[in-house]
């Protein structure tokens, strides 16, 4: 059985940002918490970002609800390859290849555990680690303003 998701939709916001429009919808389809997927995306892209429209109620701001705003220029193909990596790492069961899994947090070991609802197998998922972040001009300016 194949696991089919909608392709990620991205829209440029100005010249330096990108909005991933159907982000929360994809998280719901994968049955994963938005915070966890955001953490993964930001760590993998090595950038900053935030969820837009999360605070608005469904009735008034349903249009902007659940967009991920990323700093930088990313094409839909970049987001798609990242989504594939996330699904391989945190969604798919390695034993039966099913996507019918649950991500749990083991309280004693503080590790994420992927548990399959079909075959009952479970494995520990890698913790999300952010890569190297170089000091940019913006970082230096922020440090200078905080100091002075």
From TrEMBL:
One GO biological process term is: formation of translation preinitiation complex
Q: SUPFAM superfamilies, alphabetically?
A: Translation initiation factor 2 beta, aIF2beta, N-terminal domain (SSF100966), Zinc-binding domain of translation initiation factor 2 beta (SSF75689)
GO molecular function term, any single one: translation initiation factor binding
Domain of life of the source: Eukaryota
Keyword Protein biosynthesis (UniProt): yes
Q: What InterPro entries has UniProt attached to this entry?
A: IF2/IF5, Transl_init_fac_IF2/IF5_dom, Transl_init_fac_IF2/IF5_N, Transl_init_fac_IF2/IF5_Zn-bd
Q: Name one GO cellular component term.
A: eukaryotic translation initiation factor 2 complex
What are the UniProt keywords, alphabetically? Initiation factor, Protein biosynthesis
What residues does the Translation initiation factor IF2/IF5 domain cover? 1-122
Q: Which family does it belong to?
A: Belongs to the eIF-2-beta/eIF-5 family.
Per its record, how is this protein called by name? Translation initiation factor IF2/IF5 domain-containing protein
């Amino acid at each position: 059985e194949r696991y089919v998701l909608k392709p990620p939709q991205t829209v440029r916001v100005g010249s330096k940002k990108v909005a991933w429009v159907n982000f929360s919808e994809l998280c719901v389809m994968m049955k994963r918490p938005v915070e966890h997927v955001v953490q993964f995306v930001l760590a993998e892209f090595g950038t900053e970002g935030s969820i837009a429209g999360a605070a608005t109620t469904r009735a008034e701001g349903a249009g902007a609800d659940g967009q991920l705003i990323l700093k930088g220029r990313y094409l839909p193909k970049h987001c798609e390859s990242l989504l594939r990596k996330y699904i391989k790492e945190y969604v798919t069961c390695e034993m039966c290849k099913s996507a019918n899994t649950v991500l749990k947090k083991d309280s004693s070991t503080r590790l994420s555990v992927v548990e399959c609802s079909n075959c009952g197998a479970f494995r520990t998922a890698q913790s999300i680690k952010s890569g190297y972040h170089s000091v940019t001009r913006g970082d230096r300016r922020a440090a200078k303003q905080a100091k002075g």
